[in-house]
């Protein structure tokens, strides 16, 4: 369940990154965008050239007084993030929580939580940051837009999983 090492991703998987971009960017309503909500360290980890994540509304959680200009909206807590999203809800289709550890945990505990889209990497990597335990009331479901077969890149196998809270 590792997700990070020394402020970076433990692996480089182009197809998985493309899947992340596709899933978090695509909207049914072309007049709307998705929000990507992340912790401050995850924002810091994004390479400058990919910041903000394109065609998505970037929101960063921090307890510090930060200002990312027009690149990202700063929020001080998950309730504060939800308040801001409520104000712009006509422009927003989905909210994707994209890490790190504590933000994932808080999001999964939220009554507004919908689904967990998790990529399970079938190889051991050294990690210092981990995905929180998946609660027992989460069940595997299918999503027609998510490939079900085993993926492979650079000899590394991985599978896309989707969980719903029951
Ligand atoms: N594999 C993946 O899919 C994936 C996804 C995301 C990240 N990662 C990796 O994970 C690592 C970063 O994750 P992380 O868990 O260390 O950090 P993180 O969650 O990205 O950031 C932690 C920071 O976010 C802020 N924060 C978190 N929850 C908050 C809340 N409820 N209210 C206000 N501020 C809040 C705080 O910022 P302040 O300290 O500024 O107050 C906190 O120090 C990196 O290695 C990254 O590459 C991997």
UniProtKB/TrEMBL annotation:
GO terms for biological process: dihydrofolate metabolic process; folic acid metabolic process; one-carbon metabolic process; tetrahydrofolate biosynthetic process. The keyword NADP applies. The keyword NADP applies. Residues 1-165 form the DHFR domain. CDD domains: DHFR. Pfam families: DHFR_1 (PF00186). PROSITE patterns: DHFR_1 (PS00075), DHFR_2 (PS51330). Signal peptide: none annotated. GO terms for cellular component: mitochondrion. One of its GO terms (molecular function) is NADP binding. Gene3D superfamilies: Dihydrofolate Reductase, subunit A (3.40.430.10). Its EC number is 1.5.1.3. Pathway: Cofactor biosynthesis; tetrahydrofolate biosynthesis; 5,6,7,8-tetrahydrofolate from 7,8-dihydrofolate: step 1/1. Keywords: NADP, One-carbon metabolism, Oxidoreductase. It catalyses: (6S)-5,6,7,8-tetrahydrofolate + NADP(+) = 7,8-dihydrofolate + NADPH + H(+). Belongs to the dihydrofolate reductase family. Key enzyme in folate metabolism. Catalyzes an essential reaction for de novo glycine and purine synthesis, and for DNA precursor synthesis. This is dihydrofolate reductase.
